[in-house]
Amino acid sequence: MRRSTRRCRDGARAVVWPLVLFAVAACSDGPPDADTAPVPADRNAVTLEQRPSGYTGSPAQWRGFIDCWARDVQGARPDAVPLVEAGAVVVDDVALESAIQQRQRQLGVELPRSYLDFLRAYRPRGQWSTVANATGFLAPEAIDTVARLDPEGVALAQQFPLEPDDATYFRYGIEQDSATARSRYQAGAIIVGKYGSSLYEQILLFPQVRTRDGEMEAALLGWSGTFRAPSFAELMRQLHYLDLGRAVHVPPYAQTLLRGTCADAMPLQDVWWK
Q1: What percentage of the chain carries pLDDT values higher than 90?
Q2: In contact, 205 and 217? CB cutoff 8 Å
């Protein structure tokens, strides 16, 4: 998925996804390992489908969270443009619901409730032509798979596939390894927005990975790894803290760090990750 590349001593280009793992594979003296079959899953691992997402929110809670987010970013970084806007323009609800239903049929997926509630509260209007090299969230009719919007990213990632086992993959919160990703999920992942101006800084939903209550795993792509969250709601709680400019690194941030911030306006129940 990563856009960054570098030149090895022999002139070959090394794709970085994540940065270190791909660079080592591309610049080694010998050919990459031909065995790309998925590693057998650890039968003792607890997968995400066995876990609850903790999301019990509503569009009204999303509106409060978004307004708090925009206000706090402007207070913390007066010259910055928040990733979200306070008091977004409200469009006709019937038209919005129709757009959501039509896009779900076209994509062949049922979108998670936390993301749908966000759409109803925020009404994003972005199109890929304007968001691809900027920041923002896509309108319901504009969301699409990585395969369609970023085919080059899919092709690069498939050159050096990553397939960690369940015990390694299904870790969330501060125990997650940012170098952990599953290449086979990328093509079907849904791009819903961008949090940075570079093309690879995408906000994704993974239809292949769901919680017990139907939330989709959500992710932020970055220079040196991928941050994955059990739901879009948790991803946005983490992303809001990054947007404040207080952190010296990208997510994950500990739940204790989010307390006392706008994340409190989007509470999650029975959080099982740290």
Answers
A1: 73
A2: yes
